[in-house]
Specification:
The complex is a heterodimer. Chain A is mainly alpha-helical. Chain A has one helix spanning 3-26. The longest helix of chain A has 24 residues, at 3-26. Classes of the chains: A mainly alpha, B alpha/beta. Chain A binds chain B through residues 4-5, 8, 12, 15-17, 19-20, 22-24, 28-36, 38-43, 45, and chain B through 44-52, 55, 348-350, 352-353, 356, 421, 423-424, 427, 430, 527-532, 535-536, 538-540, 542-543, 688-693, 695-697, 699.
């Protein structure tokens, strides 16, 4: 795998990882496009 | 600074300061339509923090003033009993908007005035939007606006939100009311007023900070009523000597508790006001809504009618959208792929990157986006049923049926939401007071066929059941509902024993929603699908491509990581009719998101097909083809709508040639195994995002595990019965 391949791989892997992190980890299952960062923590727990 | 300059500066300051306008009203008074009419596309939709209640807000300019419009949840009162009431009240009391627009249904003034009277207690300027007054006039009602303004001391503006009438005058009146001071106080009778004055005096003496922080008269009333939330917020104990003998007379003179007494007083005031200002004709004809409800809520016809309505929704959605599905399929598989390949070639991208983008991303995400027209068409018609008032009837008849089986009718509302997406449906279970009902409903929600599963159904139905595709789609949704009821009964009699409490809900009058409001609500529902496709689905498609191409350089995708995983599972699906590694691999990725089942199949099947040897068309030819095929799609959709109740929609002979994926699916499945596969996809597991939402809401992974376990068993059993039973009956 040459340098060009490596650059493309890093860019693609980085972008993919970021999208997955935003969708699954940071947003914790919120609806895509929700502007209020999800329905929030349920009162009382 | 001179006086004139100061005046200019003050005026400039007023002009620049944002005016906050809160909009309050009963549910189904036309509040949403009114707000959409004022704010239009500037409306931002989200949720009030900590609850699942929707929050709508807009920022815009009107008459040189900056306006911040806040839509409060629809409520009948400002009591502390429901989430909506608490959210509305907390906002008004603590945020203190500059003015309140109280949207009132002119056809039901007395009931709406109960909330109006409570709003007046808050010492915030109020303007009343007398909405739906055209319907009131049609019924022969005559409302004396001037008298209502005189009695309440507020401006009353007639509006017809569905036609946009009166909205500008309403905003003018609202801006004029800013800073005009508190509205006139409505008297609740000498007894109550005397007691309130005494409580207020003691409040100002013993807790001057509270008297300054809250609307004083309102606070006195809340303390008299023993409002638990206010007592907790203010730190005043329920038995404090604050009121001491101030309330003795009330306790002695009346049998009921003070909260009921106050409520009666407000109802009485509302009734008195309505009697004074509303003049109704003597003869009351049976309302059209009541006539329709005699059928819609019929003891025996109600449920079949609901299923028939859903069948029509699916038929129309499929018939209208399918031509556009084919159009998008043609554009993504053809010109888009070619242009992307050419662009990447220009950039000097390696072959594997070209493959990743064209087969992985365009193949994966593209196959999902192909079904956007179906999603939006479904959302449009479901929105129509909701906005017309029919969905409330559906929940009512389902409640009656579910209640006789020991289930909670209120659970049907989150289940209905699950038809769009299971994630907000999980959060909607917060409206259920009983924790066991919340868990039970959350376990049943994944059986509601969400929009993400539609691409799988549409593809398979188009290939194998073209003449009756809408009916096949409908049958899958009915299967999900029936199994949800069955599993609900099973769970209720095993894991979740207990009585189902009463379910009270309002049935709004039937209304013909405007096209504008339908489009806005359809966009709000459908855009999540688009955003998800462009983010999460895109990322997963990339991951799937790597899983299909690792170990690096693997030629046969069956030997890739994902292929081997699919091979391992294939024997498990052999009795169900789809014991192939491709199906197994697609189902594995479907755990991440159901749309990915189609995306993975696209990457597996189409990626392996040979490209045609014909020279590619030019960009100009591509653009002409895109335009002409779009016009063909519009024409075909129109023809399908006309023939909806007669000739079936899309059929194989109408296509010039089926797409690569459709060809591959037609060879890999039979009609019977295809239906078994669709049933399996319907039932087999919640997707990862739904699972995360369940974990968030139920605070444990235990019930997520139960969901995965019971759903897989149920899906396997149902698919087995369908396939093996069908074979026994002689179906292929």
């Amino acid at each position: 795998m040459g340098l060009t391949d490596l650059v493309w791989l890093v860019l693609i892997a980085g972008g993919t990882g970021y999208l997955l992190y935003r969708s699954l980890w940071k947003s914790k299952g919120q609806c895509a496009g929700c502007s209020v960062k999800g329905c929030g923590k349920r009162p009382g727990g | 600074m001179s006086t004139a300059a100061e005046t200019v500066a003050v005026s400039a300051g007023r002009a620049q300061r944002t005016v906050t306008v809160a909009v309050a009203g009963n549910p189904n008074c036309g509040k949403s339509t009114l707000i959409n009419g004022i704010a239009g596309t500037r409306l931002q939709v989200g949720n009030w923090p900590g609850v699942t209640v929707e929050k709508k807000e807009a920022q815009f300019s009107h008459g040189g003033r900056n306006i911040r419009l806040v839509d409060l949840p629809g409520t009948y009162s400002l009591s502390p009993y429901t989430q909506e009431e608490v959210v509305a009240r907390d906002y008004l009391v603590h945020e203190r908007p500059d003015v309140i627009i109280n949207v009132v249904d002119a056809t039901n003034l007395e009931r709406n005035l109960y909330l109006t009277i409570q709003l007046l207690e808050l010492e915030i300027p109020v303007v009343i939007a007398l909405n739906i007054h055209d319907e009131a006039e049609r019924k022969g009602y005559r409302i004396d606006r001037a008298a209502l303004e005189e009695l309440l001391g507020v401006k009353v503006v007639p509006t017809v939100a569905t036609r946009g009438e009166g909205l500008s005058a309403l905003m003018e009146a609202a801006l004029a009311a800013v800073g005009t001071g508190r509205p006139r106080e409505v008297s609740y009778g000498e007894d109550i007023e005397t007691a309130a004055r005494a409580v207020l005096a003691r409040l100002q003496e013993q807790h001057p900070d509270l008297a300054a922080r809250y609307p004083a008269r309102w606070l006195a009333f809340k303390l008299m009523e023993g409002d638990s939330r206010v007592l907790e917020e203010t730190g005043i104990a329920a038995d404090e000597t604050l009121w001491g003998d101030a309330l003795d007379h009330l306790h002695q003179a009346h049998d009921e508790d003070l909260e009921s007494l106050m409520a009666d007083a407000r109802y009485g005031a509302a009734a008195g006001l309505a009697r004074e200002v509303v003049h109704k004709p003597q003869v009351r004809r049976q309302e059209l809504s009541e006539k329709i409800d005699r059928i819609a809520l019929h003891r025996f016809l109600g449920i079949p009618l609901f299923f028939a309505a859903m069948w029509l929704v699916f038929k129309l959605a499929f018939d209208i959208s399918t031509p556009f599905v084919d159009w998008i399929d043609g554009v993504t598989a053809g010109p888009l792929s070619r242009w992307t390949e050419a662009l990447l070639g220009t950039l000097g991208a390696p072959d594997w990157v070209v493959s990743l983008v064209t087969e992985g991303i365009i193949g994966g995400v593209g196959f999902v986006l192909v079904f956007v027209p179906v999603i939006f068409a479904m959302m449009f018609f479901i929105t129509f049923l909701e906005a017309s008032g029919y969905m409330a009837r559906a929940a009512f008849v389902m409640d009656r049926a579910m209640h006789t089986m020991g289930l909670h009718g209120k659970s049907f509302i989150p289940l209905l939401i699950g038809f769009g997406c299971n994630v907000p449906a999980i959060y909607a279970t917060r409206t259920l007071e009983n924790p066991r009902d919340r868990v039970l409903t959350s376990l049943l929600i994944p059986l509601m066929s969400c929009g993400a599963r539609l691409p799988v159904y549409v593809l398979f139905a188009a290939v194998f059941f073209a003449e009756s595709a809408g009916t096949v789609l409908w049958s899958l949704y009915v299967l999900g509902i029936v199994l949800a009821v069955v599993m609900g009964i099973v769970f209720k009699r095993t894991l979740f024993r207990g009585e189902a409490p009463l379910f009270i809900m309002e049935l709004p009058p039937y209304r013909l929603p405007t096209l504008k409001s339908l489009m806005i609500h359809t966009w709000e529902k459908g855009k999540h699908f688009l955003i998800k496709a462009g983010t999460y689905i895109l990322a997963v498609s990339v991951v799937v491509w790597f899983l299909l191409n690792l170990p690096w350089g693997v030629q046969d995708r069956q030997e890739s990581l994902l292929g081997r995983a699919g091979q391992t599972l294939a024997p498990l699906f052999e009795p169900l009719g789809f014991g192939r590694w491709e199906a197994g691999s697609a189902l594995i990725t479907g755990l991440i998101a159901k749309e990915i089942v189609i995306g993975t199949m696209g990457e597996i099947y189409v990626g392996a097909m040979d490209e045609p040897e014909d020279p590619p068309p030019s960009i100009g030819e591509d653009l002409r083809e895109i335009g002409s095929s779009f016009l063909d799609a519009v024409q075909a959709a129109g023809a399908n709508v006309v023939s909806t109740f007669g000739i079936a929609s899309m059929s194989a002979e109408e296509e010039e040639s089926p797409s690569g994926l459709k060809q591959a699916v037609a060879q890999a499945f039979t009609p019977l195994s295809a239906y078994a596969f669709m049933a399996f996809v319907l039932l087999y597991a919640p997707c990862v995002i739904t699972a995360i939402a369940m974990r968030q809401e139920l605070s444990t992974w235990k019930w997520v595990g139960v969901a995965f376990g019971y759903q897989f068993a149920l899906a396997w059993t149902v698919a087995f019965v369908i396939y093996q039973g069908g074979r026994l009956l002689g179906f292929a």
